[in-house]
Specification:
Strand content: 5-15%
Mean pLDDT: 95
Number of helices: 16
Largest sheet: 8 strands, mixed
Number of strands: 15
Helix content: 40-55%
Shape: elongated
Bound molecules: nicotinamide-adenine-dinucleotide
Low-confidence stretches: none
Strand order of the largest sheet: 3-2-1-4-5-6-7-8
Length: 445
């Protein structure tokens, strides 16, 4: 039986693992398998990424270059752009992007492209797993028919499962190996074998009854975050109108030992997950005549935050008899969250756009992001790329307003408080004594 064959291979760490897409999800996963003694091959369309891995280097902050070098040197990890090598893989895991179309509908074209490659080189005895976040039904309705198109049969010739990724870039406490993994197969055999595979690299595997349940669980997790962040953002705007400190309110509420989980406001949501994933769920809901109102409301509230930040900046400048037009505004941090270099969907881009439209002279400092370009789908602006400036004393003194958009740990906020005049803090980076002793006026979200 296919099930026993693959399971036996897994137990002896013999299967060759293929990971399609070596990004924030696929690279750490491949490294984890290779580090646990498996033979891992990453399949990439980006030749530069494949070459970087094969040189023993890393382009993802959470993946140590020294480990990549060791694993490549030991012959357990390599990357390729040659998809015919998929035929050698016993287990193939898809980790490609799942963006949205301009219409905010799911764009599963990357999954389709990866599946077409698998189909081309498919052979009997493979376990195929989808990890890319997607709407419930993708594994069974899209992948399964493709994999059976050439006569192979599920369970008899191959196994198929969905297992969502939960990686949290920049989080040193939780990485692939200690984040529990949900696994749902298209059949019981598929669930069992996929769970056995992940059991080799993660400490806790949670099998569920179907691929659909696993797909929906991932979307629930991220929608839960989007909705609760929306609630915190709405509260922040209300607190601003009421003249009370949002962070103090949240801190006080969080002393309740049960029934409350703190979520924090911010300049808007970013990254490849929270702003996009809920749309996968609401799209599927619409197919069933269902209107997912929490999702639309959260999106509406969250997407207004960049405007609110610009209002805080304009109000702050106004109190000093200055206008946004011609003001020199220095953004600290443009990545979508702290201590990483990812600017996908970052609210910083929308804030820069809006400030530029009002005639402000915008500059930014971000140790992790040397340049931002505006010729992508995230903004309306077609302006010149912006380069990160050094956080020199003169830069802070010359700014009419410093805006903390992302609270990277590398910034000396005490120095920022001493040298600038006005700070708009969207992340509660300037709290407690720091704020009391600040020479700059601090406006908080
Ligand atoms: N980034 C996160 O924090 C995170 C967390 C959980 C889940 N996810 C989900 O995981 C999936 C991947 O996200 P990511 O952040 O790793 O994306 P990414 O953009 O960092 O990486 C995807 C990689 O796939 C490659 N690729 C694209 N098409 C390909 C193809 N046909 N064949 C081979 N390679 C191809 C790209 O070149 C890129 O290197 C998405 O569905 C995302 O929603 C991401």
């Amino acid at each position: 039986m296919i099930k026993d064959k693959i399971q036996n291979l897994i137990l002896t760490k013999e299967p060759h693992i293929g990971v399609i897409g070596l990004g924030y999800v696929g690279l750490p996963l491949s490294v984890e398998f290779a580090n646990k003694g498996f033979q891992a091959t990453g399949f990439e369309v980006d030749e530069a990424k494949a070459a970087t891995i094969n040189r023993g280097e890393s382009y993802i902050g959470d993946v140590r270059a020294s480990l990549v070098k060791e694993l490549v040197g030991a012959g357990r990890l390599r990357a390729t752009t040659n998809f015919s090598e998929l035929a050698k893989c016993d287990c193939v895991i898809i980790c490609v992007p799942t963006p949205l179309r301009k219409t905010k509908e799911p764009d599963i074209s990357y999954i389709l492209a990866a599946s077409a490659e698998i189909q081309k080189y498919q052979r009997r005895g493979q376990l195929i797993i989808l990890e890319s976040t997607t709407y419930p039904g993708t594994t069974d309705e899209v992948l399964l028919p493709m994999l059976e198109e050439r006569g192979m049969k599920l369970d008899a010739d191959f196994l198929l499962a969905f297992s969502p990724e939960r990686v949290d870039p920049g989080n040193p406490q939780f990485q692939t190996h200690n984040i529990p993994k949900v696994v749902g197969g298209s059949t019981d055999d598929s669930t069992e074998v996929a769970a056995a595979l992940y059991g080799q690299i993660v400490s806790n595997v949670h099998p569920v009854s179907s691929a659909r349940v696993a797909e929906a669980a991932k979307l629930l997790e991220n929608t839960f975050r989007a909705v609760n962040i929306g609630m915190a953002n709405e509260m922040a705007r209300l607190c601003y109108a009421l003249g009370i400190d949002t962070w103090e309110v949240i801190r006080a509420a969080a002393t309740k030992p049960f029934g409350f989980m703190p979520f924090y406001p911010g300049p808007g949501i970013g990254g490849h997950c929270i702003p996009l994933d809920p749309h996968y769920l609401s799209w599927k809901a619409r197919q069933h005549g269902f209107d997912s109102r929490f999702i639309s409301l959260a999106e509406e509230v969250n997407s207004r935050m960049p405007d609110h930040v610009v209002t805080l900046i304009a109000d702050g400048l106004n109190d000093e008899r200055k206008s946004l037009k011609g003001a020199r505004v220095l953004l600290l941090g443009v990545a979508y969250k702290k201590d990483i270099n990812d600017v996908r969907e970052s609210p910083a881009l929308s804030i820069i756009d809006r400030l530029r439209a009002k005639g402000a002279d915008v500059r930014y400092h971000d140790e992790y992001v040397s340049e931002i370009r505006f010729d992508d789908a995230h903004t309306d602006s077609t302006g010149e790329p912006l380069q990160s400036v050094a956080l020199a004393d003169d830069e802070l003194k010359a700014a009419d307003c410093v805006v903390i958009v992302t609270d990277h740990s590398t910034v000396d906020y005490e120095r920022v408080c001493q040298l600038s005049t006005l700070i708009v803090d969207t992340r509660n980076a300037i709290d407690g004594n720091l704020r009391k002793q600040s020479r700059a006026r601090v406006v908080r979200l």
